[in-house]
Amino acid sequence: MSKTITLDGKTIPFEDGQTIMQAATAAGVYIPHLCHHPEFTPHGSCKLCTVKVNGRNCSACTFPAAEGQDVLNNTQELTDDRKKITQMLFVEGNHFCPSCEKSGNCQLQAVAYHLNMLDDHFPLFYPHREMDASHPDVLIDHNRCIFCTLCVRASREHDGKDVFAISGRGINKHLIVNSESGQLKDTDLDMHDKAAHICPTGAILIKRTGYQVPIGQRIYDHHEIDEVSLLTEQHHGE
Amino acid sequence: MKPFIQDLAAQHGHQATHLLAMLRAVQARFHYIPEQAIGQLAGLLSIPRTQIIGVAEFYSFFHLQPRGQYELLVSDSVTDHMLGKHQLMGYLAEKLKVTVGGVRGDGMVSLDNTSCTGLCDQGPAGLVNGRALTRLDVTKIDLIAGLIDQQKPLEQWPAELFQVADNIYQPGLLLGQPIAYGSALEATFKRGLQETLAEITQSGLRGRGGAGYTTGWKWHLCYEGPEEDAFCDIDAQKKPQRYVICNADEGEPGTFKDRVLLNRYADQVFEGMTVCASIIGAEQGFLYLRGEYLFLYDKLQTVLQQRRDAGLLGTNILGQGFDFDIEICLGAGAYICGEESALIESLEGKMGIPRNRPPYPVTQGYLGKPTVVNNVETFLAAAAIAVHGGGWFSGIGTEKSKGTKILSISGDCARPGIYEYPFGTTIQTILDGCGADDVLGVQIGGPSGTFISNQEFHRKLAFEDLATGGSFIIFNNSRNILDIVNNFTHFFAHESCGFCTPCRVGTSLLKKQLDKIVEGHGSAGDVVALEELCRLVKNHSHCGLGQTAANPIITTLERYPELYQAQLKKISYEPGFDLDAALETARRMANRNDAAAHLAQVGEDHE
């Protein structure tokens, strides 16, 4: 008899060492997330995957599943709060979906749709952020960075490099790259690196590929993010 | 620069865990962290340059752009404001011909604000090149300006500028009878390690930093945890490694008791750490001292050396075959490092970002090894309990809060300073003791704690009623509650580490939303929006900072809802910005300032 937790009233199994996110994904239950990716060390920073474990808010991507846990995921309260957290991510940066070449393939946008986000709710920060177009093949648009650190982790854990890092404190956090000039062109990033393809938003883009797939024919134009996420993440590690 | 950096890295054994100490030295020498130093250190320490830039940009006392030869900082704590900080800052800027946040043209001096420096009982306070300045006034500022103009090195500045008083007004169980040198260790070895742990547990001692975790239980967990957690891979002997850390990153605005404890009772604190180490089996301890307390550093090093000489620290302590030593590590201006896992990250030479928990530090702490992190006062109390036994301590206090609490009292009272009271003491008794009358309210536990009104002074100091890490700020009836809340809310936005969305964005949103209301641009619904935001930040933030950042608003909104409502415009619609101010750029570009170039705020006519 395997160990189980209760997720929204349903009993689901888990293996020792699994997080709540891993157990839920394996059981076919989607928990919204942006900084989590099954291939990399969980980060627990975006807080979209917040679930209630025995009445306490926990990040599903980092919190270990344990026998007898009563976990709430798909509740109105959590959905409302997740929507507000997504709105926070929108207002702190400069996210103008209609002019962004990631539109339709963007997880931030897709999560926002999934959570039925219809406005920004909070006042916009309009921060002044630079672009780094120095690299011949890869572009950084800092306006769209949500500090999920997926590029940081992919570069370190998968590519065996240390191209990216998050620097600064509080609302002044920003993405930096590992070169003396501070420019991407002087790092050892290659366009085939995982780190160049992992960004959930349009902050790191491969040049000259933006409109190869027309708007209207992109992933989230036709599929909800829960469906896509489960499909891609369930098979991880099999 | 090159030999300087090489020597520095060599002094620190090329250990990346010592990055903060090295950057402190670079900042002190060059008054910024030069690009060249970053590249060189990255090579010497074998770490990516991004880690160094990350650390340099995270801590307030490091700068990537040159600061002045004299780096002047003035504490922005609410108590400094109550002592006239605002006017003084203006005077200082004028006198030194430098803007707040800027560097003077000749590069000689820079001026800026800094978070509470732990000198609230002798403010307005400041720092010059990391050295604490107390009781600033016009006369002292004139003196300082003169010294800077003459380019006098700090060593030649008059000592009175740097005088820090202890101001102990009410010693109790702990402060009244410090233990004899070495007596806690002698008692521990005589009684037995497990027996001493039993005494600590039986005393009911709970962590004095604020969270109140049972100390004996914490030590027990660290000791009892799976042995494999403690084993060190690179250690051929496979000896378990555990660590003891004393958290002296006393950053909560309004608290300064740890400064006094380390100035006057350092031996007893170190002895408490050594007792803990003997029980859990640690060989290495750290005192994480907040950067603002740099002036204590040399003195504390001397105390440690004396203890080594006396056989109370180092190898074979008291001939018991027990080895333990303590290293002092200085912070660099980050409130978040008071959070134990952020503190550990900082000790490892990284940005102070709280870790995901579990695992907790007792099983995976410093360098992934089991670690006990306790507050300065906790170790002080533990040493006394090791001498006198658990019953001596648990006989005082309340059911859930045993012993006494050492308070840092500041604000509107006759005798601001250090007071020790048994748990269970009423707020009124404490107010009477320090000579406070005409009191409007008290901030208990600092900005992250609770604001209580003058209708609640019957309440008690205790974990089960009013818990506090020691901060106790008194406000009289002349004070404006919204100004206080505003100061605290800005503090949290400044100190948020930025790791998680709800705190990073939420604390800035709280600041904006509160500013909007305080500045009179709020309309119906804005207080509700503020409450909603408070709930979100409190419930979803990653660590204690975010979870308590809304407390100043929540606790005052509960008690004085009318204060907030009175700030709102009596109209249903109000723009969220100042219409006239928004036209400033246009006016400047058009070179106009006539009446027609100004706009009245919408709706004012209808009031």
What Rg of chain B, in angstroms, do the CA atoms define?
25 Å
**Which word captures the global form of chain A?**
globular
- CATH secondary-structure class of the largest domain in chain A: Alpha Beta
Shape of chain B: globular
Tell me the distance between the termini of chain A. Answer: 21 Å
User: Secondary-structure element sequence of chain A?
Assistant: EEHEEEHHEEHEEEHH
Beta-strand fraction estimate of chain B = 5-15%
Fraction of helical residues of chain A: 10-25%
For the sheet with most strands of chain B, the description reads: 6 strands, mixed
Overall number of strands of chain A: 10
Description:
The complex is a heterodimer of chains A (238) and B (607). In chain A, 23% of the residues lie in helices and 16% in strands. Chain A has helices at residues 20-26, 76-92, 107-114, 150-158, 219-222, 225-234; strands spanning 3-7, 10-14, 50-53, 56-59, 70-72, 131-132, 138-141, 164-167, 174-177, 204-206. In chain A, 47% of the residues are buried. The model of chain A has no long low-confidence stretch (mean pLDDT 96). With 607 residues, chain B is of the alpha/beta class. Chain B is 42% helix and 12% strand. Chain B contains 26 helices and 14 strands. In chain B, a hairpin with a 5-residue loop joins strand 12 and strand 13 (450-453). The N and C termini of chain B lie far apart (65 Å). The mean pLDDT of chain B is 94. The A-B interface holds A 42, 44-48, 50, 57, 59, 62-64, 81, 84-85, 88-89, 91-92, 122-123, 125, 146-147, 162, 164-173, 176-178, 180 and B 35, 39, 48-51, 53-54, 57-59, 334, 351, 356, 358, 493-502, 504-509, 512, 536, 539-542, 576.
